[in-house]
Amino acid sequence: MNIAKQLVDNQVVNLVNANPEYFADKPDEERKKSKAFLLLAISAFLETEISDAIKYITEGGGDGGFDAAYIVQDQDSLINVVLFQAKYTRDLGKDPNFPANAVEKAANTIKGVFDPQKRLELNESSQKVVTDIHSYLLDGYIPMITFVCINNGIKWNSDAQNHIDNNFGGQPQVQFEYFNHDDIIKYTTKTKKVDASVQFKGKSIREDFNYKSVILGRVCVSEISRLMHEHGDALLEKNIRKYLGINTVNEGIRNTLTDDDKRGSFFFFNNGITMVCSKFSANYLQESNWIVKIEELQIINGGQTCKTISQTINDYPDMDFSEVDVLVRLYEVSTDESVIQDITFATNSQSPIDFRDLRSNDAAQKLLEQGARELGYAYKRKKEVLTARQASLESIPSSVAAESVLAIWRECPHIAKHKKHEFFSTYYEKIFTNPDTPLNAAQMIIAVLVFRFCDNYRRKPSDDLEIQAQRAFSQYFLSMIIGRQLLLKEGITLQQITHSNFSQIRDLFEHNRELLHQKAEAFLVECLHKHLNSDLHGIDGRTIAAVFRRFDIVEKYLKDCQLFF
User: Fold this and answer.
1) Around Cβ 533, how many Cβ atoms within 10 Å?
2) Would you kindly state where each structural domain of the chain is located, as residue ranges?
3) pLDDT tens across 115-144, in order?
4) What 3-state DSSP class applies to 70?
5) What is d(CA 295, CA 196) in angstroms, rounded to the nearest whole number?
6) Of 433, 436, 443, 377, residue with least CA distance to 409
7) How many CB atoms lie within 10 A of CB 181?
8) At 530, is the secondary structure helix, strand, or coil?
9) Which pTM was predicted?
């Protein structure tokens, strides 16, 4: 029996036992295990914590053919949408393919979800996702779709591949990916060091300065493809940019590589690849075409380029890439993490990236970790694999802290909802190191408690049609309203929330949270009535979703709301 499959099954059981609140909607153990397997896979694929992954779940009756959905607003009027479908096999001795009929259903799901003219019968969670997507599409956004097929068996068969090819062959907006127990284990285990050799072409430049060395030169894209084939994502351990699948940057790289007229000029069109290592060596007496031996090789910028090169060469085996080169910068920096971090910051500027791990050693992050620990909470500065017990609500990933603080104390709920990938870059100072109100642990934890409550409450149905019409979209805005109410009730400013009055403010929220949420929703509905000049239940959900992407309702109504409880 596959060892990875056994390990993942053990993680599934531990997750169910340690976090019963995540599985209260499941009537039996098998369904709980299936949901836990889905959570583990989402967490691994998106490289996030379980407490984040739970927010993306939509599975259940009427889910529309997808079990979870992740949506992020990208550059150039694009939205990246990742849909997940999982099949969990109870008998670990079997290795079934991901079902062909499930792939066929996935193809139909994509056609339905991404056509605003179609109406689908969905459960509440799935309907909220589809309404959000349709709202984006009607505003002119172009979707880039990745459908992730997950199981604890093996990949889909040729019949399933035919469904994909027949429906989306040649369609650059749609990509299917396979993910299983082996991939989950790869995420949960540390990657071994990569030692490799790289063939440079023609003359290269080598310089030594400040006890460090660098080589600049040309490398054939086939050599990059070979590296990716041999070492895969192990080369990208320090790369802070997630591979975004299909987007305008990657599609442009692919188009250039496959265009007979442009392929030879790829070197001039691409920004190049930045690598770091602990040591490199070559025969420098040789005038050109160095074969460089490299220890502890990592790609810190250009991960998208490398992935796209590898995928394109794999897709076009008969095409000649021997004269297609890319610029490579190779730095020998030993194990100096601060230097690697500085290089990474300086060279990553092509598209939105996740700076969370790079920011994790900032003084502000360390102070939040220490302050949270003293208040009885575990603040997770870095993305890390948590045990089932560590994934409890007392654990606060920095990503959750960032969206909570940005929505509540920084009064930007519209940004917190749709710009998750920019929390640790564009909005980092605003969230964590604002010179007027630097964030402390007490403020952070209160924000997280409020946001988590509101985020969980959005799943509850309401008999009031006006309340129900906005509930699926408003949790970030409600969180901001409740945060303001806590300050008004205590008669304090944000700066005055400290460890000294933390317990008092937390208790005020915990003892009144139902009433606070009820009154905040009533206030928000009243604001929406004024803003839209209409009852909500008669308005298309896509219009309501669009309202919560903009800032005007915050400025007109929410920032100056008065005490109402």
Assistant:
1) 7
2) 3-188, 196-353, 358-558
3) 998 888 888 889 989 999 999 998 889 999
4) strand
5) 7
6) 443
7) 27
8) helix
9) 0.68
Q: In whole angstroms, what is the distance from residue 167 CA to residue 104 CA?
A: 9
Question: 521 Cβ partners below 8 Å, 6+ apart?
Answer: 467, 470, 471, 474, 478
In sequence order, which ranges of 141-289 are alpha helices (DSSP H)?
158-168, 181-188, 221-231, 248-258, 266-269
Domain 3-188 in CATH 3.30.420? The answer is no
Residues paired with residue 291 on neighbouring β-strands, in sequence order = 199
Helix, strand and coil in the chain, % to nearest 5: 50, 15, 35
Query: Contacts by 356-364 with C-beta closer than 8 Å and gap 24+?
Result: 356/240, 356/382, 356/383, 356/398, 356/399, 356/423, 356/424, 357/240, 357/382, 357/383, 358/240, 358/424, 359/398, 359/424, 359/428, 359/432, 360/398, 361/337, 362/432, 362/433, 364/432, 364/433, 364/438, 364/439
In angstroms, the first-to-last Cα distance of the chain is 59
The residue assigned the tokens 């990509």 is 175
SS3 assignment, position 119: coil
**Looking up tokens 């500027």, which residue turns up?**
349
Which DSSP letter does residue 258 get? H
pLDDT tens per residue, range 24-41: 888 889 999 999 999 999
